[in-house]
Amino acid sequence: MFDVLPNKIHDESRQGEAYAPFTSDPTVYRKKFYIESYGCQMNFSDSEIVASILNGAGFGATRNVEEADLLLLNTCSVREKAEQTVRKRLTEFRKAKESRPALLVGMLGCMAERLKSKLLEEEKLVDLVVGPDAYRSLPGLIEEAEGGQKAVNVLLSREETYADISPIRLDSNGVTAFVSIMRGCNNMCTFCVVPFTRGRERSRDAHSIISECTELFNRGYKEVTLLGQNVDSYFFMPEHTSGQPVTFALLLEMVAKISPQLRVRFSTSHPKDITDEVLQVMARYHNICKYIHLPVQSGSSRILQLMNRTYTREWYMAKIDRIREVIPGCGISSDIIAGFCTETEEDHNDTLSLMEYSGYDMSYMFFYSERPGTLAHRRYKDDIPDEVKKRRLQEIVSLQNELSKKSNQKDIGKIFEVLIEGESKKSDEDWMGRTSQNKVIVFPKENHRIGKGDYVYVMVTDCTKATLLGKVANPEE
Ligand code: SAH
Ligand code: SF4
Ligand code: F3S
User: Fold this and answer.
1) For 284-301, how does the pLDDT look when each residue is reduced to its tens digit (9 = 90+)?
2) Fewest CB atoms within 10 A around its CB: which of 129, 226, 244, 423?
3) 455 C-alpha to center of ligand 1: Å?
4) Domain ranges of the chain
5) Domain 415-472 has CATH 1.10.10.10
C-alpha cells in the first residue's frame, strides 16, 4: 500500500495519510495513538519524532481510529485550504468522541502554533494543542488532558532540533527515508506563515545527522533525503574548537561518503542560498542525486521584490544556467504562486516565460492565499480576484504539463540507473523506482533477479506526463 513513497515536500497525494509502523506490536503498549499528517515533508518527519516520544511514554501507533485512545492531527497552515481540510477532519473525529468521551484529540504542528489556545475556543473538541517545538512535553500534556484539563504548549525554541530522538519510521518502504537537518526559517518571504509557525532557523548537530544516516544505511535503507525549509543555510559549529564549521556543502559530502550505495537527496533550496560549492559537491559524487528543487515563486522581478525573495528574474536565470553548466542533465523543479498582490498580466507572463526558460521537470503550483499575520497581509492588499488567480494558475499548470511531458519525452531511448522502491501501485508485475533526477519510472519485473532496494539500469521506452515507462537494461546481464 505504501510502496510509492513520494520524497518531495508538499506531495498532495499523502495529505492526511494515516499510518503506523509495520513492525510495532501494539499489544505491548498501554495505550494507542492514531496520527495523521498534513503539509510538508517536515511535518511527516516530525510525526515520526512524535511517535518515538509517545512510544517512550507507553503509546503504540495504530492505523485504526476506533481502537485509538488518542487521536492526533499534525497540521499545516501554509494556505487556507490546508487549514480547512484539518477542520473538516476534526468534525469527523467528533463522532468518535461522542461515543467514547475518554478519547483525547490533539492538534500538533503549524496550525496549533498559529492559533494557540484560540484553537481550544474555536474547536471545543480539541483537548491538546502542541506546537512543533514542544513535542517533548507531549507525555506530560497528555496526562494533564487525561485529568480533564485542556493542555497547551506552543513555545517556540531557538535550540530544539530533536537531535537525540531516534524517529520511528511510520510508513516506511524500507528503502527511502527523510532526515531533518534543521528547523525553522529566518527568511521573511512576505506571503509565508512558516517563520511564524516554525520559529527561528537552527541547524541540527552534524554528528547526529551522520549517525542517523549511517544507521539507516546499516538497516538496509538506500536513500536519505535531507530536510529543511532552507537547507543551503545549514551551518553547524562543533563545540570543540578543533572542529571545522559544517556548511551544507560539507554536510552533503559527509553524508555522501557514508557509502556509494546510499543515495542522497535534499529539499528545499532557496535560490539565494544555494552555493557553487554545493553544485560542485553534487557533480563530484555519483550518489548525490542530480535533482534540485529550486522554488522561484514568480518570474517577475517586481513581484519577487514584493515577496522579499531577494533575487531578480535575471539572477535566478543565471543560477539555472550555472546548474546546467556544472551538473549537465540535472532535474530541476519549482514552486510557483499565481496571483500575488498587485500581479499584472505582464508579471504573470514573466512567470510563464521563466518557466519555459528553466524547463522545469515538475512544479508545485498554488494560487496566492493570504495568511493572517504575514508581512503581505499587513502591508499589501490581496487584490487579485479569485477568478483571475485561478485562470492564471490554470495557465501555469497547463504550461508545466507541457514542460513535464517534453522533459519525459527527451528521456525516451536513454538508460538510467534506478533505485527500486517497491512494486508499482498499479500492477504487482511491475517495479517502481526513481532516477537520480527524481523521475518515477515503472518497468516490468520479467525474470530478473532484482528487488526492492536494488539499483538497476532501465531503458526508457515510453512516458506519460508524470511517469517514465521502461525495460530493464542491466549492462552486466
Ligand atoms: N521553504 C520552502 C517552501 C515552504 S512553503 C521555500 O522557501 O521554497 C512551500 C510552498 O508553498 C512555497 O514555496 C510557496 O510556493 C507556497 N506558499 C507558501 N505560502 C503561500 C501562500 N500564502 N499562498 C500560496 N502559496 C504559498
Ligand atoms: Fe517560507 Fe520563504 Fe522560509 Fe520558504 S524560505 S519557508 S517560503 S519564509
Ligand atoms: Fe510545513 Fe505547512 Fe508548517 S508547509 S512548515 S506544515 S505551515
Assistant:
1) 999 999 999 999 999 999
2) 244
3) 33
4) 26-153, 176-407, 415-472
5) no
